[in-house]
Amino acid sequence: MEEVVEGIGRLILRIIKWLIIDALVEFVIQGIGHVTLKIITLGKYPRPNRDEGRTVVTGFVTIVLIVFVVVMSTH
I want to staple 51 with a disulfide (CB 3.0 to 4.6 A). Which of 1, 24, 26, 46 is the partner? Predict the structure, then answer.
């Protein structure tokens, strides 16, 4: 009986972890990428439902650059 409860618990935790990671990518990283691309391209990109991958990559690169600048400015 313990193994069944433990398996269900692991499944629930995996689902929660997946939802958190998906929400982080969907709303935070993609949102930052969307705003960054809009600013850089003066509103031309990202196109709706076509540039999602590019938007996520841009958001991730933007976050990395912001962290790098903040760390370098404190030294």
Answer: 46
* pLDDT, position 1: 65
pTM for this entry:
0.72
Q: Spell out the domain ranges in the chain.
A: 2-74
35 Cβ contact partners less than 8 Å away, ≥ 6 residues apart: none
User: Do the beta carbons of residue 63 and residue 29 sit within 8 Å?
Assistant: yes
12-49 pLDDT, tens digit per residue, is 999 999 999 888 888 899 999 999 999 999 988 888 77
Pinpoint the alpha helices (H) of the chain: 2-23, 30-40, 52-74
Query: Which 8-state DSSP code applies to residue 26?
Result: I
Cα distance between residue 67 and residue 75, in whole Å: 13
Most distant CA pair in the chain, distance: 60
